[in-house]
Write the structure tokens for this entry.
Amino acid sequence: MNILLTSAGRRTYLVHYFKEALNMAGLDGQIHAANSEASPAFSAADRQVVAPLIYDRGYIPFLLDYCRKWEIKLLIPLFDIDLPVLSSHREEFAAVGTLVATADKEAIEICNDKWKAYSVLTKIGIPTPRSWLDWEEAAREAKNGTASYPFILKPRWGMGSLSVYQADNDEELRVLDKKIRREIQNGYLKYEAAQDLGSCVLVQEKVCGRELGMDVVNDLEGRYRMAVVKEKTAMRAGETDGAVTVERPLLAETGRRLSGLLKHRGNLDVDILESDGKWFVLEMNARFGGGYPFSHAAGLHLPYALVMWAAGKEPEARYLQARMGIRAQKDIRILALNSISKEE
């Protein structure tokens, strides 16, 4: 079974996890890594390929040809803006024998669009911080006492803590709104924001508390299998750097509800804040998130489960469980990318 990880970036550990998964399943195959430029994940992959940019007209034809040539059975996208593009072409990939393991486009839109996520979560009664698409409306509510500073401003379609700022008064709200709009237009977030440039900045009431993460696992039919909750102990550039698995039955049940709502395939990465006994869902990502390795360290082996499901088999139950109280931390190492070969 050959597997392709797209937008592989620095997810070297996922390459190793999937290699291990093939070995555990007793299957021959290679792990392929695709990215728009040479990346650390290339160092661990069996084959590497530099692909066109995601919004390039040739991106999908390139990947379809690649999957056909190398008989890719399973394709795992690892970047938020990659998800809706690949999901929209799942049938074309299926025609060449490749299963794209992601959510349907409608579910991805809920995850990628923070305003849509806020609206949906509020409607179904899952707690989430109050949000606005108009900074002046947020300022008015602060003035009349129905909301309070500080507010967090961020791109409506954003990721990785890019252009996230705190405003402590009306003037900062106004200035930061303009600043984020400029930053969006000068980066790759402009493609997503083009859907609604007038409402591309989200204002969110700040919630202070412990940061938690949750992995919600579905099988390749979109059926709920399990959820793991972790308390974050360290963060770096918006990504979890350290965490410990914790018991939170109510949050795990929320994971089950989110699974039923989104019916995603594979992993759903959820960011949560816990404050004074209450919890709030901040964001959702329908992919492997930066917090997955901490669930993996606690015993969950989702890559193995995905490989088994793709092979038409059921993974052993012990690989869809996680031990509580397992504390882990990410490491840093340096790779010389000019020594990494790649296919053109």
